[in-house]
Amino acid sequence: MGIIVNEQNGLFHLQSSEMSYLIQIVNGYPVHVYWGARLKHRESMNDLLIHSPEGAGLDRLPQEYPQYGSGDFRNPAYQAELEDGTRITELKYEGFRITKGKPALSGLPAVYTEEENEAETLELELKDAYSGLKVVLLYTIFADRNVVVRSARLSNEGEQKLRLRRALSASVDFTGRSDLELLYLSGAWSREGNITRRPLLQGETRIDSKRGMSSHQFNPFAALVTKETTENHGEAFGFSLVYSGNFEAGAEVDAFGSARVSIGLNAFDFAWQLDRGESFQTPEAVMVYSGEGLGGMSRTYHRLYRTRLCRGQYRDEERPILVNNWEATYFNFNADKLVSIAEEGAKLGIELFVLDDGWFGKRDSDNSSLGDWVEDRRKLPDGLKDVAERVNKLGLKFGLWFEPEMISPDSELYRKHPDWCLHVPGRRRSELRWQLVLDYTRKEVRDYIYDSLAAIFSTVPVAYVKWDMNRCLTEIGSAALPPERQAETAHRYVLGLYELLERITADFPHILFESCSSGGGRFDPGMLYYMPQTWTSDDTDAVERLKIQYGTSLVYPVSAIGAHVSAVPNHQVGRITPLEFRGDVAMSGNFGYELDLTKFTDEEKEIVKRQVQTYKQIRGLVQKGDLYRLKSPFEGNESAWMFISEDKEEVLVYYFQVMAVPHPPLRSLRLAGLDPELEYEVESGEGGGKSVLGGDRLMQLGLPLNLKQKDYESGWFRLKAVKS
Ligand code: DGJ
User: Of 617, 681, 687, 690, which one's alpha carbon is 20 to 30 angstroms from that of 325?
Assistant: First the structure.
């Protein structure tokens, strides 16, 4: 297990407990040999090696980091321009290095190890002798996870300047497989997380973001699956990019049915000048293999991202139940109104009150004040500290909203520093939501934001921050960069953001950070490294949320998926759903409320009290258990999922029916992931008493469902293994 090297035939076998990844050096090129279920290591593995047909050159060779210009006509992984304007480079193998654990990536978020023996890292060194371009390919393999983490470090060891025009994180050639499909998450604002699946034919299937953020439209993730792959069966190869800006991911099928899958920084509108002696580190791609369908892939991502990507005090702590005032008041509130919501929250058992947008500058609507992070005394006459302390006195923690990457043209900050936003001289500054984007490539801008936030964190008892970002980047240019570096702006923006987030989260470790970008516009692994939870979508309608949360859970752990009960008629779609249904959907994620608690009837308050109590009992399992998706909202009227503890002894099942069905058939719900040998005591949320049923029976015959004849019906079961 680990990285096995056969130097004689240039073979590198990266082997974990259930997975193998094989590379061979052929004529100096790193060739991709295999990725999939674990292969036993044999001294002579020559039969595995792929031989390129005589005379076919590089175009038929499956490669690990392909170049363009010398006979491979598929998409390259990188491209470098020399001072003379030529773009031909040829990377040849120079050597390798194996280290224990996993190195950190300078300035970038990355998966990590806590103990050295959790993983091993292979560095393959390649060099273009003519230009001096050196590329180190990094591969980390974990002992007990079906994961390969890849990235590349490109260095200029030559005499002349180089200009990178493309530098992807990973490229994998799947040779001769005509049965493949590409699956990814697509969407828009308020309808994120749609699972999209397409057969791969000769040609390209590509997703990307040019918006400067990972985007609502496409998540930085794609999976290669076979036609037969389902939730619980078949192979899935996941590619997830630990990055929060412009990315591209896709598959290109050549004339012979081979698919080249690649992921990394978007090469569109990107260039990076690499002076002599400089290096460029790509973000990393987390590649997951599953032989147990999409469910297996998701569970591998969940465990890895929850425990080896997220960091800080809250990584392992149960997350507080919050109430947020956004949909309760929007911009229209004063201190007493806020405290009245918190007061009601205290009675209901809620643990954290979050003051959303509108507390600073003169922000009565979304057209002003971003950048002026000073409390608005018209709304909060005794200041922010006073409100926070009043909330604390009620027994709730206090949380605060910021949108630190933005500047309103109508702000003190803009009047003082009109060049602090991203812009291009002589061009218009496109306002989206009446705001511009701060130039985070500039240190003085980041320092100003750091100081503004730190001043508040040092005086007000802030226990939680919602870090919002409500527009994408346009006119991407920086007044602080020279002409030859303008095309670096988008990536430098993200690096600047990461630098600030590192600083602020390290200096205020007691604060729980939640990221947000008009909901799920930047729900990505890069942000999770700094902030262990994300506001999943601005759409809080429970029916819409079934799909949004289900889709998001393909990659992201449930602990990260912010899910709130909101008022009816729902503010986004106008739908009226029962409070119980809304609660069950939200309790399937990182739970909270986003409405005016003071407007509840007594009966509703009793329901909410029960929900809060229940969530306190189940949140350990929901946030840290293994998720099995049982019925997909994308496929019909019913949805279901379950959470199970690692020892398989505790289970929680939720099921949902959107529309009532007339004269319905008998229905049962087949569970998954149970121990077939165990007996489980089953308790139904319907109050139907308890029964003891075998794990095998529950998975094969299922749990009988007694759905009521009504729209928006939901319910739960709790199962506990019975000790014999
Ligand atoms: C967008 C967020 O997604 C909302 O939850 C809310 O915080 C608003 N911004 C505030 O402007």
Answer: 617
Between the alpha carbon of residue 629 and those of residues 52, 544, 550, 658, the distances in Å are 42, 17, 8, 17
pLDDT of residue 271: 98
Q: Which residue in the block uniquely carries the two structure tokens 């009620």?
A: 394
Cα-to-centroid distance, 446 and ligand 1 (Å): 22
Give, in degrees to the nearest 5, the angle at Cα 569 between 565 and 574: 110
Percent of residues in the chain assigned helix, strand, coil, to nearest 5: 25, 35, 45
Nearest-atom index, ligand 1, CA of 594: 5
Is residue 470 within 8 A of residue 405, CB to CB? The reply is no
> Which entry of 173, 372, 538, 541 is annotated as an active-site residue?
538
pLDDT of residue 46: 62
CB of 631 within 8 A of CB of 655?
yes
Closest CA relative to residue 295, chosen from 12, 632, 668: 632
In angstroms, the CA 74 to CA 289 distance is 24
Pocket mutation for ligand 1, best pick of 518, 545, 548 (most atoms within 8 Å of C-beta): 518
Pocket test for ligand 1, best of 465, 470, 564 (most atoms within 8 A of CB): 470
CB of 566 within 8 A of CB of 540? yes
Ligand 1 centroid–CA 644 distance in Å is 32
CA distance 444 to 668: 61
Residues of the chain below pLDDT 70: 44-55, 724
pLDDT of amino acid 47: 57
In angstroms, what is the span from residue 562 Cα to ligand 1's centroid? 13
d(CA 39, CA 184) in angstroms, rounded, equals 28
Round to whole Å and give the CA distance between 505 and 420.
Answer: 23
For residue 545 the two structure tokens come to: 């949320």
Residues in the chain: 724
Q: Annotated catalytic, 538?
A: yes
- pTM recorded for the entire structure: 0.98
CA of 357 to the centre of ligand 1 (A): 7
Options 128, 357, 410, 468, the catalytic residue = 468
Burial 465-476 (b: 16+ CB within 10 A, else e): bbbbbbbbbbbb
Strand stretches in 101-161, DSSP E = 119-128, 133-142, 147-156
Residues 31, 23: Cα–Cα separation, whole Å:
6
> How high is the pLDDT of residue 556?
98
Which domains are seen in the chain, by residue range? 2-308 (2.70.98.60), 322-624 (3.20.20.70), 630-721 (2.60.40.1180)
* Cβ 110 vs Cβ 126: under 8 Å: no
Report whether residue 523 contacts ligand 1, using a CB cutoff of 6 Å: no
